[in-house]
Design brief:
Elements (H helix, E strand, L loop, with lengths): L5 E12 L3 E13 L9 H4 L8 E5 L13 E5 L20 E3 L16 E7 L3 E5 L9 E13 L10 H7 L27 H4 L11 H12 L7 E7 L13 E6 L2 H5 L6 E4 L15 E7 L8 H11 E11 L10 H5 L2 H15 L2 E10 L19 E8 L2
Parallel strand pairs: 2-14, 9-10, 9-12, 10-11, 12-13
Antiparallel strand pairs: 1-2, 1-8, 3-8, 4-7, 5-6, 6-7, 13-15, 14-15
Helix pairs in contact: 6-8
Length: 399
């Protein structure tokens, strides 16, 4: 731990891999106290002396989070679980999925109000087997950090110590991992509250932003990392703003969306097409047409996602990138039921399942971004202190 009583704005990055994907998790901390707050390993010594460059350290399985243990596997009688909700239907359990631990409060030393995740390994009519190990208990992890801005001396009156890496790990890091046994696509949860054809819902143009300005900026930077001048880009499920970064002006962008007026207002589009993929998943483009596909805050509305993703793979050139970004806001009546039931990080696993099941993608990568301050002039600034979280899943079209 540093002996310097100094505060700084810091970005944290956690990196890890599983058998399917590479993953990164970014968290921003506006006022990290080098003397009081906790960083793992030698990072607490290296970061205060750094000048804005990334400093990092690798951790073996079981070093950063407790090592995997058989003692964290418990078989619990169904009658001991609390699956009712104050509002809405009862919680429906599915093998492979994650649920807040409080559903098993009073068993396995779980206290009421514990929101940390547990994973259902298997279940029958009488009992369920749950895993309380951290999802990354058997994974090597790299932690990196950099100073964004030094904020000067810190006050030492009151306050608490924050283990910022463990706070991030407990918030859901690791739930993005795709388990083959989860069976997301075997459920009937692709229904929606409003089952009318989407043409009716999207008949009126909505020329509003669905995310705050900071989140939009992060999405622009995600797209910047993969887009190059001269590319043919499909803005899939497009609207009036493609969230493309400035400075890449030679892109040829085709927008496929649901409302002609919205598409007409989008200055980045060179070609516009109205098409309902929930009714007709087949895309009206030839094979190997595009150099990249982007899809922004819309994937949660797909009712036939695997068929649609297979089409995305078909219209992409071999080796081209598909980039799916989303957040935690949506139209409640049009989002699929499954999306609303998953942990935010688990939705990243679901989108990976779409790519995997499509059968014509590889080289998956996921990212999450949390903790940026919400702009003070944002209309939700009084309700939400932080910017809307950003989640991204990338995949490469197979040759």
């Amino acid at each position: 731990m540093s002996t310097t009583s100094e505060q700084a704005s810091v970005e944290l990055r956690i990196e890890w891999e599983d058998s399917v994907s590479r993953h990164y998790n970014r968290d921003h901390f506006e006022k990290l106290n080098f003397w009081r707050d906790i960083l793992p390993g030698a990072l607490s010594l290296k970061l205060p002396d750094s000048d804005g460059d990334w400093v990092d350290e690798g951790f073996a399985p079981g070093e950063l989070v407790p090592p995997w243990s058989e003692s964290n596997i418990h078989r619990i009688k169904r009658h001991a679980l609390t699956l009712t909700r104050k509002h809405g239907p009862a919680i429906e359990l599915h093998p492979g999925r994650h649920y807040p631990r409080y559903i098993a409060a009073g068993t396995a030393n779980i206290f009421a109000g514990n929101f940390e995740p547990l994973r259902i390994i298997e279940m029958d009519h009488e009992s369920v087997t749950v895993d309380l190990n951290h999802p990354l208990a058997r994974s090597p992890v790299t932690v990196a950090a950099r100073i964004l801005e030094r904020l000067g001396p810190a006050s030492e009156q009151g306050g608490r110590c924050n283990d910022i890496v463990m706070d991030a790990m407990k918030a859901g890091v690791g739930l993005e991992s795709l388990h083959p046994s989860t069976g997301y696509l075997s459920t009937s949860d692709f229904e929606r509250m409003d089952d009318r054809v989407d043409e009716q819902f999207y008949a009126s143009a909505r020329l509003v932003q669905h995310l705050d300005r900071s989140a939009i900026g992060q999405i622009c930077e995600i797209y910047r990392s993969d887009l190059r001048p001269g590319m043919q880009v499909l803005d899939f499920m497009a609207s009036w703003d493609s969230h493309l970064p400035d400075g890449i002006d030679e892109l040829s962008v085709t927008g496929l969306g649901m409302n002609a007026d919205e598409l007409a207002q989008n200055p980045r589009l060179h070609h516009r097409m109205v098409h309902d993929v929930n009714t007709a998943p087949a895309l009206p483009f030839e094979d190997n047409r595009f150099d990249a596909v982007i899809c922004t805050v819309s994937v949660e509305y797909l009712v036939k996602p695997v068929a649609v993703f297979r089409e995305l793979g078909r219209v992409l050139k071999p080796g081209a990138m598909a980039i799916i970004t989303f957040s935690d806001r949506w139209f409640p009546t049009k989002v699929i039921t499954l999306w609303t039931e998953l942990h935010p990080f688990e939705r990243v696993a679901l989108v990976q399942e779409y790519f995997r099941s499509a059968g014509n993608f590889n080289s998956l990568e996921t990212g999450t971004i949390h903790g940026l301050p919400r702009p003070q002039d944002d209309k939700y600034a009084q309700q939400r202190a932080f910017s809307d979280p950003v989640f991204a899943v990338r995949a490469v079209a197979a040759g």
